[in-house]
Amino acid sequence: MNKKKEKDPGEEPYLKVLRPLVETYFAFLRKEEPHIKTLGLTPAQFDVIATLGDTEGMSTCQLSDETLVTKGTLTGVLDRLEKMGLIERVYTEKDRRQIIIRLTKEGVKCFERVFPDQIYFLKPYFENALGKAEMETLRGLLLKLKESFEKG
């Protein structure tokens, strides 16, 4: 009988990448979330404000595609940001059924305050670990991996 010895699933090469990837993500969240809260926002609210900043606004569909906020969560986040006076919902002139979400004047002020603060808070964590070329390589590899999951 010629039985082929099966490879130990625990020896798959991708497992040596998977755990550090997930651990890095959680380490990032442990640093990012408390800092965003000091800015007076939740991570989802920050994501929406940062995404809308420097734009004329976006449809909810575009916003959903551009943020890391799930579609099911986005409406509630937008409702809270609207109550805070940071965003407004505006009907388009072409199609009254389409709504554009955009920052209010207060929202723009918020963006101008919180976005640079968060960027400069995170910057040392990246720069202490990676050089510019390494960051570019890592970005390319992560996008390639993301694309593999999206195609599959």
Strand order in space, largest sheet: 1-3-2
* CATH level-four homologous superfamily name: Winged helix-like DNA-binding domain superfamily/Winged helix DNA-binding domain
Mean pLDDT: 93
Distance between the termini: 37 Å
| Secondary-structure content class | mainly alpha
Total domains: 1
Share of residues in strands: 5-15%
Q: From N to C, what is the helix and strand string?
A: HHEHHEEHH
CATH fold name: Arc Repressor Mutant, subunit A
* Integer-rounded radius of gyration: 20 Å
- Our count of helices gives 6
Major sheet attributes: 3 strands, antiparallel
User: Roughly how much helix do the residues carry, as a percent range?
Assistant: 55-70%
Number of β-strand runs = 3
CATH class type: Mainly Alpha
List low-confidence stretches: none
**Architecture (CATH level 2) name:** Orthogonal Bundle
Morphology:
globular
Task: State the main characteristics.
3-stranded antiparallel β-sheet; 3 strands; mainly alpha; Arc Repressor Mutant, subunit A; single chain; 152 residues
How would you describe the overall organization of this protein?
The protein is mainly alpha-helical and 152 residues long. The protein has a single domain (15-151), classed as Orthogonal Bundle (Arc Repressor Mutant, subunit A). The protein is 65% helix and 8% strand. The protein contains 6 helices and 3 strands. Strands 1-3-2 form a 3-stranded antiparallel β-sheet. A hairpin with a 7-residue loop joins β2 and β3. α1 crosses α5 (105-129). The chain is globular and about 65 Å long. The two termini are 37 Å apart.
